[in-house]
Amino acid sequence: MQESLIILKERLRISILVPCHNEEKSIRKCIESFFNQTRKPDEIIVVNDGSTDNSKKILDEFNGKINVISLKRCTGNKSRAQELGLKMVTGDIFISTDADTILDEHFVEKIEEAFKDKNVAAACGYVKSLKFNWLTACREIDYVIGQAVHKLAQSYMNFLVVIPGCAAAFRTKIFREHITFDHDTVAEDLDFTYKLNRLGLNINFAKKAVVYTQDPADLGSYINQMRRWYRGNCQNLVKHYKILNRPISALELLLIYFEAILLPLVLIILPLLSVIYFSKILIIFIAASFFLTLFASIYSQRIDLLAYMFHYLFIMFINSFIFIQEFIKEVILRKKKLIWLKPNRREII
């Protein structure tokens, strides 16, 4: 009896917080994934951010099982909706995810394990793309490279660059006292991560805490999403430039930005100087695309990814040009833009 009381006392209370604006195509499956957890969350809070579709009707189906904060008008910003929701959170830990995301059944369980170390202030899950078409396949390749290679290396260096907004968890008290919401970038997840790193707080990469997110399936939505991601990346670099005072973080960020800037410059300038040299560089890119897709297909156990090698090469070019555009606007010209463009949604089956 005494042992059970001690276990009960040490058990962390875990909340899930999710903002929702016109998410009728995905919100039901999202919430159902919360109830299918091996370790049930203690609290579920959904902020209905002025939805004008059937989102409210779907949320009403879960009446009594979840806490819904209904806003008459859309805040226009995900982080503002999250900020309002956080006021209602009572958990020791709160999980932040998106309404187009499904949690793996072991997600909460693995997040709880990540916080057994009392020095951990935040945890970062592993993101997978919901399978749909060639664009989501390319996104899955990017996720594998970004997490199985870069993020794993960053965790060993104790400098995770970003905690993805759809797979994030924080100690509530630490977040309220030290992180908070500033609403001055379009990538609040990156802002949170930089703040944690500047404070020297530990972030756990919980790679077994998996989520499945809905990525853009049409090129227009994909480009808009990448513009926002790269724009937010540049905005946070300007905002948190003092992070470069740390040798490890400076090295990691310089490598990331050097690669991101060098690649588009090569693609733009080299064809003007020499078609022959550009052809040789193109062969290198094709080889790199093959090895990246091969690695991603083996790691994620999705052999179908190999069929998208040239699609991924095309996406690499698209990403490079978008990044250089946003870098020039945000870092060099300082034309800060805070417009949030939401991608088109589709039914989650």
Strand order of the largest sheet: 3-2-1-4-7-6-8-5
Strand content: 5-15%
CATH topology of the domain at 2-132 and 146-216: Spore Coat Polysaccharide Biosynthesis Protein SpsA, Chain A
Can you count the helices? 12
Give Rg in angstroms.
21 Å
- Main sheet summary: 8 strands, mixed
| CATH superfamily placement of the domain at 2-132 and 146-216 | Spore Coat Polysaccharide Biosynthesis Protein SpsA, Chain A
Number of E-state strands: 8
The percent of residues in helical segments reads 40-55%
CATH class of the domain at 2-132 and 146-216: Alpha Beta
Structural class: alpha/beta
Average pLDDT reading:
90
Shape: globular
Q: Uncertain runs with pLDDT below 50, 5 residues or more?
A: 1-9
